[in-house]
């Protein structure tokens, strides 16, 4: 048995969770925050048998596409000056996926 931990953008999570459950994967959804933009993420925990790991990863790939957004990076020119917004193009989306071996699974 494997545990798939997938960290995805909040906006990708509703369709991903729906698609995973439609394909009969059991999913636990956790709210998380992190990364360069300090934006909200969703961490999904998906317990699967070894033979369907690639199927679950394929569903994640289909739902979590990388895209570019423009955001503001605040800079200070001199001490005491005000912050000047600086537009910055960054890539968001996609998923960080970890596949872990599960030594023991107990369902109570």
Search tags:
four-stranded antiparallel β-sheet; Alpha-Beta Plaits; alpha+beta; 108 residues
CATH class of the domain at 2-66 and 93-101: Alpha Beta
**What amount of the residues lies in strands?**
over 45%
Spell the H/E element sequence. Answer: EHEEHEEE
Rg over alpha carbons: 18 Å
- Uncertain stretches: none
- Count helical runs: 2
Oligomeric status of the shown chains? Answer: single chain
Query: What CATH architecture label of the domain at 2-66 and 93-101 applies?
Result: 2-Layer Sandwich
The largest sheet, given as strand count, sense and whether it forms a barrel, is: 4 strands, antiparallel
Question: Can you tell me the overall shape?
Answer: elongated
CATH topology of the domain at 2-66 and 93-101: Alpha-Beta Plaits
What does this molecule look like?
- By secondary structure, the protein is of the alpha+beta class.
- It has a domain at 2-66 and 93-101: Alpha-Beta Plaits (2-Layer Sandwich), CATH 3.30.70.
- It contains two helices and six strands, in the order βαββαβββ.
- It has helices at 13-22, 53-63, and strands spanning 2-9, 27-34, 39-48, 66-76, 83-93, 95-101.
- The strands form two sheets. The chain has a four-stranded antiparallel β-sheet with strand order 2-3-1-6, with helices on one face.
- β4 and β5 (83-93) form a beta hairpin.
- α1 (13-22) runs antiparallel to α2 (53-63).
- The two termini are 17 Å apart.
- The relative contact order is 0.28.
- The model has no long low-confidence stretch (mean pLDDT 84).
């Amino acid at each position: 048995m494997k545990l798939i931990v997938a960290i995805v953008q909040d906006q990708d999570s509703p369709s991903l969770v729906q698609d995973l459950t439609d394909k009969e994967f059991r999913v636990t959804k956790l709210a998380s925050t992190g990364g360069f933009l300090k934006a909200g993420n969703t961490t999904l925990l998906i317990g699967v048998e070894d033979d369907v790991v690639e199927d679950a990863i394929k569903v994640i790939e289909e739902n979590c596409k990388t895209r570019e957004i423009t955001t503001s990076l605040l800079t200070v020119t001199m001490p005491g000056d005000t912050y000047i917004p600086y537009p910055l193009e960054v890539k968001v989306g996609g998923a960080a996926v970890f596949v872990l071996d599960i030594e023991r699974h107990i369902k109570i």
